[in-house]
Batch of 3 targets.
Target 1
Amino acid sequence: MSELTQAVARRIIDTVGAHGVPPEYGFQFFSVGFEPYLAIIEDEYLSSFIPQGGSAFKLVIGMYGGGKTHLLYSIRDVAWKHNFVVSYVTLSPGESPFHRLDLVYGAIARGILPPLTPEELLSGFEYGMASFLRGWYAMKFQECRSKGLSGEALYSELEADVERLSGVESLSFLRAIKASLRALAQRREDDFENICQWLTGESYDRKTHSRHGILQRIDRSTAFTMIRSLVQCLRQMGYNGLVVLLDEAERVPSLSTRQRDQHLSNLREVIDACGHTSFQGAMIFYAVPDDNFLEGRTQIYEALKQRLDTVFGGLNPAGVRINLESVVSDPVEFLVSIGQKLAEVYRVAYGCQFRDEHLAATITNVAGFAADQRYADEGYKRLFVKTIVRALHHLRQKGVPPSVDDLR
């Protein structure tokens, strides 16, 4: 879907105007400034290096409301274009803190999505392992049907597809995947759900899971093994690998010294794993509001700083840090570009027209207003998109641009 429909436009305007966050689909219609980064990520990584068995880690730095989620959604689109499974994970202190890698693994498993079309995104979809396995099984079933197979011959072919899965680091993980697919084939729904609970790190019950060959718990000591096994399974199942988008969307409360050390240790483990040949077909983006978590003087801080000090860009695609503020050379000009795109979305949403001089004055006034707030707590880009929607409502209803006082 490349044409902007009225229904999609209304969804964009409502989501952006209410919360200042990009919608799951529709962010493409008002993206500005990410193209150079996306082109490098696609050319240097997702179309070549990662499918060929490479792995990579990138650190995205942008203040809250500064475009991190928008960039991660854009990367998801590029990854889907190249047949990657993607998991977008909101890192929250309660459910998936980075110092608990077992919880992060569970969040990744619950967030996986195979490539989806815009129509599928808009019609509703389910995240996670259970939905993914059902979808893969249904795809294989249809492939068998298209070959003219039916009855026992069809299920024999499906069993052969399942049996061909191999070469996975965790034997328990591989057995769980195979057992879940066989449970689907034999319509044993309870077994399928019990296995998926283990695959998403929710629980381990020896009596329930061991009869499927699952003999290992998913805990802090095995979490990264499970992440590697997940990627290996996805490649065995016909995808190019896994792109993980970790979005630290909430401010992290004060951590104990032990938690902070574990957070940094986990991050170092992830970065180092991306340089090993045993971790193939994975690209991980870790989006944070700032790099204050690197301020320390112990050995672990120095080790991380050295791993994260290179800057990603056209002259150095191997660089690690993606600084979102560097895409903006002139804040007002940047916001005006976003405003012009959102105004077009608004026009489609409400079927209205604006006088050119009124629209230009509105966008320029709101851009100046938001740019003046760029050192405040709220990201000025988020402030701008929320305010411009409100200003366009004002312009449509009253026929004149809003004043600065109207915007406050």
Target 2
Amino acid sequence: MSEVARVGKGKTKDSPRDDAGRTTAEIEANIARTRSQLADTLDELAMRVHPTTIADQVRAKALASVEQKVGRVYVGASRAVEQVKAQFVDEKGRPRQERIVPAVLVGGGVLLLVASARRRKGK
């Protein structure tokens, strides 16, 4: 009769060994350790697929995406403001009268047209 057969029947009192040379206590400890690892893995999987966890992950991704787009818009707006400012201010920081006066006149004309159109709608 082989060692494994004696272990399976539990008839021996000395430390029986299987084909790999492990004792019954080692095999039981290995089984307990594997069960513990399996339980940890199942707990982690349950946490990963929990609706709250998924909602938190989606919320975090959405927030990161919004922050990234806001950052891009801010950089673009800052760049546009600098370009517009460069049109009305010279290299020394002095205002360019020859560009400011026509822009103010055009802006004032547009405001008058809008105010006139609103007044006509009101009547």
Target 3
Amino acid sequence: MSEGILTDVLIAVSLTLVLAGAAIVVFVRRPARQAVALSAYGVLLTVLFLVLQAPDVALSQVAVGSAVVPLIVVLAIRKVESIHANAGSRDAEREH
């Protein structure tokens, strides 16, 4: 009986943390920081899946949601920033 209560408490705490993590990801303004928050959110989802006894889903989440997707976002941000920097330098050269 107490094991069921402990499981319910763990699920409630995990869901609360996932909700708070989702809010943090949404309210972070800078994209680079948002990628870091997204990675932490992936870890929170991993914990939730472990609590729900879904280790295969948790493993997928930690690999994809916590590592690959934030890495792709960071790489995309860097690429966009380099494109803007190059465009800015070309505009400066045209003016001279």
